[in-house]
Amino acid sequence: MKIATFNVNGIASRLPHLLLWLEKEAPDVVCLQELKGIDKAFPAATLRKAGYGAIWRGQQSWNGVAILARGADPIEVRRDLPGDPSDDHSRYLEATVGDVLIASLYLPNGNPQPGPKFAYKLKWFDRLIEHAQSLRAAPRPTILAGDFNVVPTDFDIYNTRSWKKDALLQPQSRERYRRLLEQGWTDALRAKRPEQAIYTFWDYFRQHWERNAGLRIDPLLLSDELAPRLANAGVDTWVRGLEKASDHAPAWITLDAPRKKAGRRPRT
DNA sequence: ATGGCATATCCTATATGA
Q1: Residue nearest to nucleotide B4 (CA to C1')
Q2: What is the pTM of this model?
Q3: Tens digit of pLDDT for each residue in A74-132?
Q4: Best label site of A72, A90, A221, A222, fewest CB within 10 Å?
C-alpha cells in the first residue's frame, strides 16, 4: 500500500502534473494541499476517470485540502481541526480508507514572525497536538500527512543562513513538532532514511531547485500500529523538475500488509 | 534589508506563500 502527500500549489494549474503523477506512481491514497480554489472548482470527475475517489474542502484563492483513494471513496470523518470554531481556513480533512484513518493537513506558514500570522500558526499547531493526542488514544492505524510548514532540524534544510528568521525554523515551531512526535508518531521518511538529506520543497527563487537547495516540510507521521509495517519511503523529485511545477514534490511511503494475528491461523 | 518567482483574483495591481 502506497500513501503520498503533495502540496500542488493550485490544483487548477497543476492538474496535468497531478494526473501524470497518479498514472505513473499509482499511489493508493493521496493527501493534497493548497488547492487554492472553491469546492465547485475541484476536478472530481476528472480524478474519477483517472480511477480515484475523492473528498475535498476548498476555499476561495487560498488553502484547501483533499484526500484521494484509488478505486475507493474515502469516508469523511471530519473537515475541521477542533478547538476554534472561528477558524474558517480550509486546512484539515480527515477520512478513513479501508481500516486506516488518514488526515490531510496544511499547517499555517506563519510568516512574517513575530506577528498575528505566527501567533495563528502556533495556536493551530497547539490544536493539532491536542487533536493528535485524542487520535493516539484510539487503537487504530492512523496517518497524519501534509504540509506542516516546519523544518524539523537543521539537517532538514540545505543551509539555514538565509532562513534564520523564517517562521519554519523558529524554536517555537520546532518545539511543537517535537512535542507532536513525542506522542508516539513516527516521521516515516526520516525513520527510513536517517542519514540522508531529503527535501520536499524547493522555492521558486534563486534557482533553488537547480541547486537542490531544499527543505523537508511535508512529512507523513505513522501511529505505532503502522510504524512496524513501514516498508519504504521517498520523494518523487521528478515531479518538481517538470515545466511549471509546484514548489513541492510528492512524498510517499509504502506499507506492508498487516500481520496475521497470532492464534488465528487455520489448522492445516 | 530586499528581492528573486508563482498562484489567484475585485487582474495594466495586490495578497499570499515559504
Answers
A1: A205
A2: 0.96
A3: 999 999 999 999 999 999 999 999 999 999 999 999 999 999 999 999 999 999 999 99
A4: A72
Distance A93 CA to B14 C1' (A): 29
Q: Note if A256 is an active site residue.
A: no
Nucleotide nearest residue A8, measured CA to C1': B7
In DSSP terms, which residues pair with A105 in a beta bridge? Answer: A92, A146
Catalytic residue flag (residue A147): yes
User: Which is nearest to A94 in space by CA: A114, A75, A118?
Assistant: A75
Nucleotide nearest to A245 (CA to C1'): B6
